[in-house]
Amino acid sequence: MSDLLARVTALALAAKKASRALALAPAAVRDQALRAAAAALRADEAAILAANAEDLALARAKGLAEAMVDRLRLDPARLEAIAVACEDVAKLPDPVGEVTEDWTRPNGLRIVRRRVPIGLVAIIFESRPNVTVDAAALCLKSGNGCVLRGGSEALRTNLALARAFGAGLRAAGLPAEGVTLLPFTDREAVPALGSLRGIVDIIVPRGGPGLIEAVVNSAKVPVIKHDAGICHVYVHARADMAKALPIIINAKCQRPSACNAAETVLIDAAIAPTFLPGLAAALAARRTEVRADARALALMPGARAATEADFRTEHLALILNVKVVADLAEAVDHIETCGSHHSDAILTEDEAAARSFLAQVDSACVYWNASTRFTDGGEFGFGAEVGISTDRLHARGPMGIRELTTWKFEITGQGQVRS
What sign has the CA pseudo-torsion 336, 340, 341, 342? Predict the structure, then answer.
């Protein structure tokens, strides 16, 4: 066993032991720990922001793209939002022990299906430090332990956040090892975590394609992917133009570095001549680069020609692809061909067209007359999210506390034996 694997294994074993204590802790104690963690985050604001400033300086020195720097940045408002998210999670109904089914067989056996924690959840992520606390809070609320491995660019920030969260666990009488952040970012830590069958119960990677591929290819434990967000907004021929423009601007420009930001606008040919010049002007006012197909290019002053690769790229920046389509069928075909099955929207006042779009587009989240930016655990009422799953098994879309549980069957008899 390599030295790194031995270190990862030792940390994971301690977290696994602590996860059993979290699973058995009453809901009131877990909620107390979440509120104490929020208080500790506020109390440690100066130290956390100082650590973040060091990470930001190193990120800029390394030449990281501005989208990555924005993901990394904390300020008092963002830190307060992280603390509030902990408190919001504490207010959520406790999923642990919930009975989802209850029936009695003809032979008198009573069978109850009950929600239980998954166990030890490993979460591997990049850049965005709020994931450290969001993941810890959701795992704690659902009675799970977690092992976190963040990116090197946010190591100091993540360590400061994890220390504060651990203080909240201790304040409630729970083991701080229940939330364990790996204090190193060696690439070999990823396959090491994925190899710990019998210790780690599930791995959730959230980040770029390289990270996702590395985890999926190396893991020997189940993986739930937080995959790329190549999101679309389709403007149907019967769209309300007064609604459509603000939705597109919000979906692209409100936070372009987010995975639920729109990367491509598709527009029906019938309304393209009247809609696209205004869209071009609105995007130019927000310093957003437009990459347009041949039909859109002639209608959007200042646009540049899009390549086929642009329509398959998660830009994570103020860059928007625009393509003119013949109808809904071509829009759906484009989304299914070039999208990542994350979040896609139709803008229309035609209910039949909307229902057809919602049924045909095979994405985790599909929208009718709303921005794709709402794909978020907080916006869905989950308090926070561990990730946004684009898988089809176990969890899909924003993963909150219910998605961090599995179930067990409890069978009660009065002496029955099987003949």
Answer: negative
